Amino acid sequence: MVVARNSPVEECSVHYWEGQPHDEKGMMGGFEYLSPRDEANSRRMIEAYLLRGRKYFEYVAELGAGIGRVTTRVLLPYSEHIDVFEPVAANREVALKTLPHDRCTFYPDTLQQWTPRRESYDLIWIQFSLIYTSDDECLALLKRAQRAVQGRRGYVVIKDNMPLGNAKPVQDSTDGSVVRSTDHLLRLSTAAGLKLIRNHRQDHWPIALYPVSALILQSS
Ligand SMILES: C[S@@+](CC[C@H](N)C(=O)[O-])C[C@H]1O[C@@H](n2cnc3c(N)ncnc32)[C@H](O)[C@@H]1O
């Protein structure tokens, strides 16, 4: 099944997020108590599979960064400079207040608009926001990400709600999101010239919620 876009992104996902609380609870959809588990799992993953002898990443991009929850507690300890992309102004305001300006630069681009330079990033992190793309948009975005990490042996990390195997995509008209299976996302990644390095499952996650996985990808 191919997931298409029915309405402009500004009218669905961005509009939805403008109306959500601009805090930890809002970012986690009411499950803010899961934040520490999510963040600890991501830090363990970075240390085990991404750093590979490096002390830190020089240039990092985070897309759909919200109020900077992941930026602060997952990426900053391992990054020299982070470009923080988030389309909702009120979320960016919170991030602007909490993140160090000498190490972070803030941009309003959506995933659809984001256009990085070639070979510009060592790590591109996309968490709980790729669900706001159609298949065409997702493929185009991953192609741009592939060109941005190619040549630097950089990584693209997609961490999101990800049912196992080849489950059908689930669209939600409330926020304009689509939850895609691991297989579906891997097909799009392969078509974009990215190969899977590791599928890192989030542990200790409530069974009533979608499983969460992090796909670590590199240019193939
Ligand atoms: C569930 S929150 C996750 C925020 C952050 N990644 C985290 O894990 O804490 C989803 C974020 O995606 C952003 N978003 C929604 N539509 C987007 C789009 N089309 N492009 C980029 N970001 C988008 C929202 O504004 C919101 O900040």
Would you mind describing this structure in some detail?
By secondary structure, the protein is an alpha/beta fold. It has one domain: Vaccinia Virus protein VP39 (Rossmann fold, 3-Layer(aba) Sandwich). The chain is 31% helix and 24% strand. It contains seven helices and nine strands. It has helices at residues 13-18, 24-27, 35-50, 69-75, 89-98, 135-149, 182-191; strands at residues 57-63, 79-85, 104-107, 123-127, 155-161, 170-172, 177-179, 194-201, 212-219. The strands form two sheets. Strands 3-2-1-4-5-9-8 form a seven-stranded mixed sheet, with helices on both faces. Strand 1, helix 4 (69-75) and strand 2 form a beta-alpha-beta unit. Helix 3 (35-50) packs across helix 4. The radius of gyration is 16 Å and the shape is globular. The structure holds S-adenosylmethionine. S-adenosyl-L-methionine binds at residues 64, 69, 111-112, 127. InterPro entries: MeTrfase_NTM1 (IPR008576), SAM-dependent_MTases_sf (IPR029063).
Residue stretches low in confidence (pLDDT < 50, at least 5 long) are: none
Hetero groups in this structure are:
S-adenosylmethionine
Biggest sheet features: 7 strands, mixed
| Whole-number mean pLDDT | 96
CATH class designation = Alpha Beta
Instruction: Give the tally of β-strands.
Output: 9
CATH superfamily: Vaccinia Virus protein VP39
Task: Give the SSE string.
Answer: HHHEHEHEEHEEEHEE
Number of discrete helical segments: 7
The proportion of strand residues reads: 15-25%
**Count of folded domains:** 1
